[in-house]
Amino acid sequence: MTSPRIPLRGLLALLLTACGGGVVQSVDAPPPPPPGLATLQIIAEPADVEVTIDDAFAGVLTGYREGLIAVRPGPHRVRLGRAGCLSGYFEVDVPPTGGRLRTHLVCTSTN
Fold first, then answer.
1. Which of 23, 26, 31, 42 could lock onto 67 through a cystine, CB 3.0 to 4.6 A?
2. What is the pTM of this model?
């Protein structure tokens, strides 16, 4: 008994349909922020700083992919801190297209 032969053209069409119809998607790019929010990218040295935004603890920066944190567009107060380092206090105005904060904290020890 022989198995039925699927034409190569039909197999290719089936594969393209199963893979999103030829739509190219990058798994390396971070996802966009939820509707109504923008991304604030924080780049800090050292990278394992604790992040507080508008007096609310947001977590440790290394827990955010590429330092991208979703916030509402507009002005925000950002505090970055880590044991053994002087805390950094910043006021940023994040546009709807997103913003970036780059800083280097002064550390007195390597804790």
1. 42
2. 0.72
